[in-house]
Amino acid sequence: MKLLYDHQIFTWQNYGGISRYFCELMYQFTPGPGIDFRLALRYSQNEHLYQNPQLNRFWTHRNDFFSNSRFFSTFQKKIHVNVLNHIFNNQHESVKQLKAQDFDLFHPTYYDPYFLKHLGKKPYILTIYDMIHEIFRDTFDKNDLMRNWKKTLANNAQQIIAISDNTKKDIVKYLDIPEDKIQVIYLAESLSLTKNADPSNVPSSMRVPEKYLLFVGNRSGYKNFTFLLGALFPVLKKDENLHIICAGGGFFSASEKKLMRKMDVISRTHYYSADDATLPYLYKNAYSFVFPSLYEGFGIPVLEAFSCGCPTVLSNTSSLPEVGGDAALYFDPVDSASVTNIIEQILSDENLREDLITKGYSRSKLFSWEKTALMTKKVYEMVKG
Questions:
Q1: Which residue in 222, 249, 198, 221 sits closest to 17, CA to CA?
Q2: Which domains are assigned to the chain?
Q3: pLDDT of 148-199, one tens digit each?
Q4: Among 58, 41, 28, which Cα is nearest to 187's?
Q5: Can you give the pTM of this predicted structure?
Q6: Backbone phi, psi, residue 45, to 5°
């Protein structure tokens, strides 16, 4: 079976859960009995691709200068050349490969329907990661194309992969797709505690406090960080040794800093641009990983925390209880008292933290990229026949 993946997520995302997902799929399929795949791509600055150099040979047209040049990487950031990449290079390469028709099955990496007019009679499957644009539509521009794009592709796909049961239910609800057209396939995590949690991997500039709560990833909108910060005010006021570390998601905004100053905790709230080498260390040494998100299609950081031995507290919404199971504590992400009570409980009870660590290790073993790839291959075979 010949598979074709397109450029989309590798053009637009330098790092993140979706591009990691496709890299892990391709890695598991290398070499894959019965599977021959190609990635329609000329160049990319995606970190997950560079962490898997064995995937280089599957690019349909690799441009080493634009892919590897440090100069170009800096230049790209200055003039937002990703847009030009998309229009003039990577999308052109994807269209070229689609027109060649040298594949059995197409799997787009995101929702742009540009490929429909070039697909011919070839089937495609679609992975839907969440329904954020539909559920939180008021937070997006009124001309946002994502909802229409996703609905168009979902209606025309031969099969849809949902990354959780909760996401499947939302797809049925918001897109009116028949349940039997949707297959649930869980994701996994890619951090290796034994490889990466060594303190020698942590830069000397990363001065980690002894006692801290960890927040990972984007903090805006439905990620609910400013609500969390406000809900933690009583805890931070009571315990002056407690800090908050935010890993990834960009530097603190002006509004976030204003709130921190108002709460008088700006000196105890820290931002680190963590990577796969340093993130396990931050998980391992945190008193707790806190995930207050209002909605997650899956929530890879939950499994990262489990695998790194970090006690975990989560919102009781969307897919998070489905992924976390009994290995986490849960709070209502719109109830400050609920957050405060759970955090005080986990900070004060060492036995509880140890119990959650043990359960987290066990829970994390239920998920693997090998399982993800095996189930995905079955969907491919179902469509191809």
A1: 249
A2: 2-188+368-384 (3.40.50.2000), 193-364 (3.40.50.2000)
A3: 999 999 999 999 999 999 999 999 999 999 999 999 999 999 986 555 666 6
A4: 28
A5: 0.92
A6: -105, 20
